[in-house]
Amino acid sequence: MLIIFLYLDSLNYKSSKKAVLLSTFIPGGGQFYNGKTLKGSIISLTDISSFSLFLYNAYKYNTTKQENYYWSSIGYFITFFAVKMFSIVDAYIDSKMINAKRSQEKIENVIKVPIY
Fold first, then answer.
1. Dihedral (CA of 97, 103, 105, 108) sign
2. How far apart are CA 54 and CA 34, in angstroms?
3. In 26-66, which ranges are continuous DSSP H helix?
4. Average pLDDT, the chain
5. What φ, ψ does residue 28 adopt, rounded to 5°?
6. Torsions phi, psi of 66, nearest 5?
7. What is the pLDDT of residues 95-112, one digit of tens each?
8. pLDDT at position 12, please?
9. Among 28, 42, 61, 104, which residue's Cβ finds the most Cβ atoms within 10 Å?
10. Which residues of 86-98 are buried (b: 16+ CB within 10 A; e: fewer)?
11. Domain map of the chain by residue range?
């Protein structure tokens, strides 16, 4: 049993805290950290574009006072917020799943090794 714990301790785990922090402050950062580059790219693009469109529409509303810019800015902010929350939760879950998979693989490798 001690051998299993020593093997598990030497694994290269993904930190859930680091994945969440990266995903919070860098669009798609947690996904890139977890090795999910396609998902990270899609989240980055969606996050940055929705926030940029929110800022643009908020600026246009403040200068023109046209109601359509107001509602567009709210819609883009909701999109930005939803993508951000998805990104954070997804980074956390992915890091936990990666760690569980690595632990399982390591345990299976330890069990296959003959003990003399």
1. negative
2. 28
3. 29-33, 37-64
4. 88
5. 80, 5
6. -85, 135
7. 999 999 988 877 777 776
8. 76
9. 28
10. ebbebbbebbeeb
11. 17-107
